[in-house]
Design goal:
Length: 361
């Protein structure tokens, strides 16, 4: 389906792919592979007090309601993350009759989405995660966000309640998503605006300093975060007791990424970004995520945080070569979304086995 999408009139392509994607996601979530893959022991990474048996796992937004842990853990993923969830049930974005607009740019290893964080809310997903049987080396994470569009004081209180629900559900780590371009309130003009700093302070005092068990919390920023501001972000997170940063989320730099989009995908790209806006994922983010992580690691080292502050790369990861590029700058953990589905299209459930087979030891 991905290959033909760019040949269709753009409006029809968005309509068809968005519906097809939702149907596929439902089937995918229950398609547990019969054969279970366990990555070789030398792939394992110990970070944030957890063991990840692979330095790679599926990025947030794939399993919004806590589905498919048994699918990706059987494939060999290094961890799992549910969400992003919010404090109230969200229907997500619908425009011109298209629910959760998304398209792939098949010739460009990229995609756009304007889904708007549809989810069943913290409580429902935390309850679901509480029932999962853990596979060793595949920790369970939850991605959370403040409820978009709500008064900031109420939103942070509800966010903190949600984080506590996940803590009680026994999750192994939490990602705070501060960087979804498809909802109000996430597009910070400055990397650290006053609202965000207040939110971080409250989470630090009401969640981080009151942890009665080991529960790392990392914050996900956009890959569009300016390189000049990143050291300040790392410093602010570290001094408040956060355990790391994920760099990062989708991009809204449409004009800057346009040259990387294959000419066969350009009509669809121009249509989607003009009609919906949305966030760009995949290959166009590869160099930005590497650059952001390099700066974050230098900043971490400058504030003496060492391994106590993790820098996790997400954006444009497509396989073994990207993991090697990450490792070369000191990044130990990676997440993928577009690259995962492209690999799944090629090798099916053997996605993680395939990455491992291409790694140079
Ligand atoms: C359809 C779609 C939905 C997403 N939803 C979320 C989300 O709910 N929370 C989040 O933190 N990131 C979300 N993302 C962003 C991805 O987690 C990831 O940061 C981004 O796609 C860059 O990684 P990639 O280049 O490997 O795709 C979403 C991405 C896509 C394509």
């Amino acid at each position: 389906m991905r290959g033909v999408v760019s040949a269709l009139p753009p409006a029809l392509a968005v309509r068809l792919f968005s519906a097809g994607r939702t149907a596929f996601a439902k089937r995918f979530a229950v398609d547990v592979p019969r054969e279970r893959y366990v990555p070789p022991a030398q792939m394992a990474v110990t970070a944030m007090g957890l063991t990840f048996r692979m330095p790679l796992w599926n990025a947030a937004g794939m399993f919004k309601n806590g589905e498919a842990y048994d699918v990706v853990s059987a494939q060999g993923a290094g961890a799992y993350v549910a969400g992003t969830t919010t404090s109230r049930v969200r229907a997500g974005n619908i425009r011109d009759g298209v629910t959760w607009p998304a398209v792939p740019y098949a010739h460009s290893h990229a995609s756009s989405n304007w889904m708007g964080l549809p989810n069943a809310a913290h409580r429902a997903v935390a309850s679901r995660l509480a029932t999962l049987e853990r596979i060793p080396g595949c920790p369970i994470g939850a991605s959370v966000s403040a409820e978009p569009g709500l008064d900031a004081a109420i939103a942070v209180t509800e966010l903190i309640d949600g984080m506590k629900m996940y803590a009680d559900a026994g999750v192994d780590y939490i990602e705070l998503n501060e960087s979804c371009p498809n909802v109000p309130g996430h597009a910070h003009r400055e990397a650290l605006d006053a609202d965000l700093l207040r939110r971080l302070d409250m989470i630090a005092s009401q969640v981080l300093s009151r942890r009665d068990r080991h529960l790392p919390v990392v914050v996900k920023f956009s890959n569009d975060t300016s390189i000049e501001q990143l050291p300040g972000v790392v410093h602010a997170l570290h001094e408040r007791g956060f355990n790391g940063i994920i760099a990062g989320n989708t991009s809204t730099r449409y004009a800057e990424h346009a040259p990387i989009i294959d000419r066969r995908d350009r009509a669809l790209y121009d249509y989607f970004t003009a009609t919906y806006g949305g966030g760009i994922s995949g290959a166009p983010l590869r160099s930005d995520s590497l650059a952001c992580c390099g700066v974050a690691i230098a900043a971490r080292d400058a504030c003496g945080a060492g391994d106590a502050f993790e820098v996790i790369r997400c954006g444009g990861i497509a396989g073994a070569e990207d993991l090697a590029a990450s490792a070369a700058i000191g990044v130990r953990l990676n997440q993928w979304y577009v690259g995962y589905f492209e690999a799944f299209g090629r090798v099916g459930h053997r996605v993680y086995r395939d990455v491992v087979s291409r790694m140079r030891s």
